[in-house]
Amino acid sequence: EVQLVQSGAEVKKPGESLKISCKASGYSFTSYWIAWVRQMPGKGLEWMGIINPHDSDTRYSPSFQGQVTISADKSITTAYLQWSSLKASDTAMYYCARQWSGDYWGQGTLVTVSS
Amino acid sequence: ENVLTQSPATLSLSPGERATLSCGASQSVSSSYLAWYQQKPGLAPRLLIYDASSRATGIPDRFSGSGSGTDFTLTISRLEPEDFAVYYCQQYGSSPVTFGQGTKLES
User: A80, A22 in Cβ contact below 8 A?
Assistant: First the structure.
């Protein structure tokens, strides 16, 4: 059974760093790209970027380029999304999804950034 | 960037009725790489349709997708109570991948 299990909710202060994870199982991790999608409170879906775990080829939406870093560790079949300096506007639910057309999704990680 | 515009923003229908949701693209969607998702409150999106017209695994056949180029449609032939949700289209034919703003289907 394909599963993407994301790390738990986070509460952070502005300026802090954060790395959230997406653990994949039930399929060949290096055969499928993994994307990250943001959903701000009460809003729609925004595609942030995608990584190929096979060779770490990464593509970012221009809106998120330079704001976040996407990475993957194929030895533990896990993808990551990280921030070096969070802002209040980063408060959102973050989803990982398999493939360019998201056929499987993680359950989401709620990130709250507040002073 | 390929901007997707969904219409209507809200669609009010009753169980048993037919729903037609539209998604228009500002540029032609390469290879009909267009998907439709359903999202219910508090849950992750669920893939319904990919490549414009292929149903994802486990999706009932009352859901169908059509279209090409810049105009796409999601049709729900006969609404069930569990179909009331928000629906998003997404194009993945060009980078960056983009989503429409969503259509809320309410009863």
Answer: yes
